[in-house]
Amino acid sequence: YLVKNIGKICTSERAKNTAISLLPIIGWMKTYSFKEWLLNDILSGVSTGLVAVLQGLAFSLLASIPTWYGLYAAFFPVIMYFFLGTSRHISVGSFPVLSLMVGAVVTRLVPDEGLPANITAFEGLTKEEQRVLVSASLTFLVGLFQLGMGLLQVGFIVMYLSDTLISGFTTAAAVHILISQLKFVLGLTVPGFSGPLSIIYTLESVFTQITSTNIHDLVTSIVVMVMVLGVKEINDRFKSKLKVPIPIEIIMTVIACGVSYAFNFSENHGVDVVGKIPNTIESPIAPSLQVFQMAAVDAFPIAIVGFAVAFAVAKVYSVKHDYVIDGNQELIAFGASNIFGGAFKSLAASTALSRSAVQESTGGKTQVAGLLSAIIVLVVILGIGFLLEPLPKSVLGAVVIVNLKGMLMQVVTVPYLWKKDRPDCIVWVGTCLAAIFLGLDIGLAVGLGLELLTVVFRAQFPRCSVLANISGTDIYRDRKDYVNIYEPEGVKIFRIPSPIFFANIDFFRDKLKDAVGFNPLRILRKRNKAVKKMKKLLKKGELILTSVRLEGNRSSEDESNMEDLDKPTDYSDLPIQVNWSADLPANIRVPPVNIHSLILDFSAVSFLDISALKGLKAIKEFIRINVDVYIVGCDPYIIEKLRNCKFFDDEIKTSIFFLTIHDAMLFINESHPPKTVSEKVMKTFGDCTSLICSFKD
């Protein structure tokens, strides 16, 4: 069979698609616009590279390894992700939560006090070299786990980490990071602790030595934190006016290096500084199999958390800029990146939201910006790293603490969750407390357990209702189960057969798009682009209004902000009414929409969670392209929850609810009377000479 059909199986098209799926760079490089994108990518790459240098140095402290190995995490993984990743905007490199989880394993196998673990590869190595070997081997193992999951196509596993669980977990990680940086901010010598209650032991050691605080470290840290927080607030308030955010962290780092060097903080005041940074890239090493055995249980949650955070950030930017990311390919990309980085003693790589925000907000269009940021890091490693040697570690600690603001502020969601969705609140609080006191690995497991329990509880005990036949109504069934059944013209009825929650909301949205045959968000964006283009042509006089058609010359595509294209279509200043089902002028192409009404059958939906509420807001996309949306058979409890959670607004109104499908159909038939046979015949012939638009009254 294989011999006979080898030509059908191994076609050039299939080979091409396989190559593009494994090397996404082939796909986007073909469409790369050097004229329009290269300058933006260069500016973004330089800005991101400078931030990556500082964060690499700072986050390496969390892993309890020498600072320059944090720079490797901003170089080696980025190179591999450039070829294999599907996101064009995330900045790959060190992430504080992952660095902290790596540091817990490092201090467990190579403690500050006492003998290291019995590992053959440790013979003849200093304590620092032993810790680097553990970190590199763990990173390599994390990469193997991620690569294996990607090849097995299990990227869907990230769906079981809900927004609530991730929020609680990262808040707990932020608390751990904050406590771990106190020894640098205060200039104390605190041994590393790992395992349950390690945070208590760390605080005990800090407060025992509090009288030995180095005043120079403390004052430096306070000044840096106040300045960075203040300028970051300015950046947030005036981001619409600032083309590039003020790089206050880099400015303060340069000032701190200069002051430390001028007053010789290290020798005169006992301030712990970064110290010698080798101006070379160290040779690759083979990972230790004994470390694999001792750290396998720790490596798996690190792999899951690293991928989940990166995928969540990548998904935000893919929606904003209208392109597709592949979860399985992302696993392969991060797996290969961590394997490559681990071989060169890099930290485990993921992405940091703040660094990715810099790359995107400074105009980065593709991973060319990421590649250029890696080149900046390489220049620092090989050329100017010595300038950072007098940098106090207390400054790095202060930078880390300031960057925790976003994660720590997530605690304000707890009162909201308690009022709106108590099971989600229990997941958040349980995950956070368990991760704080029992450790991040155990906390993640506890969070998953709580999350599964809430799903089981909600699915096993739904809000059941007794249904009865209402006199004079019709019965609606699945069209696939019957032969003699017709679908109402211009109406799509979509039945949701189960509760909607974080694990299936994306599935239902995809199935809904398949059912209607189009993506409403893309239709909306294309319509908005078309309207903007027609306005532009009319203004230039290149578009002529006639009684039959609009005629105009073809012009270049209008570069529009994606966020503006997601808003309702603005027909102001356009003296016509656009008939989107007819041919448009100037070779403008907008896919047709063959329905005018969409009915969502909620009769089997017994509950919604917060993630589902956010996902359901997508019905605005249908409303904005003139498709009326109706929800039928909805439980009063759900309607009340939607009202409490501010689901309704000027676009989504409470009038969309009907008791049954037939009630909704009666209303639709009044608004859109079914066409007669003669009208259908006239429409068939009329489409050939239909008016593209008509003047407004």
From TrEMBL:
GO terms for biological process: transmembrane transport. Keywords: Membrane, Transmembrane, Transmembrane helix. CDD domains: STAS_SulP_like_sulfate_transporter. It is found in: Membrane. This is Solute carrier family 26 member 3, tandem duplicate 2. One of its GO terms (cellular component) is membrane. It is a multi-pass membrane protein. Its main location: membrane. Gene3D superfamilies: STAS domain. InterPro entries: SLC26A/SulP_dom (IPR011547), SLC26A/SulP_fam (IPR001902), STAS_dom (IPR002645), STAS_dom_sf (IPR036513). The keyword Chloroplast does not apply. Residues 481-668 form the STAS domain. It comes from the Eukaryota. NCBIfam families: sulP. The chain crosses the membrane at residues 42-61, 68-84, 90-111, 132-151, 215-232, 244-263, 291-314, 368-388, 394-418, 425-450. PANTHER family: SULFATE TRANSPORTER.
